[in-house]
Amino acid sequence: MNQNFKKLQNRISSFCKDRDWDQFHSPKNLAISISIEAAELLENFQWEKDNLEIEDKKKERISQEIADVLIYSIRLCEVLDLDPIKISNNKIDKNEDKYPVNLSKGNSDKYTDL
């Protein structure tokens, strides 16, 4: 696992341990928290027109919510003893099979509709 990623994972773990939060971090609670934080991320885009330009103040709020989703996801991987790098690469491998370049390039259809 990447050294920087491992340091981040250890920092998250220590942060939780120092506050005695392990007792609250069941897989169910962490999954719920990921969903809540993802909804908070979506709030930043609610009622917005599709626009690639995002002002710095809003980008900061978005970055905070992305960080929350990532932190809870990394924590859930730790609790379930999953390697996030490995499972992400495995998922990309599966997606490469589902979405071959010759059928999916420039196409947003679901793999079942390609």
Automatic annotation (TrEMBL):
The entry's keywords: Hydrolase
One GO MF term: nucleoside triphosphate diphosphatase activity
Protein name: Nucleotide pyrophosphohydrolase
Source superkingdom: Bacteria
GO BP terms: nucleoside triphosphate catabolic process
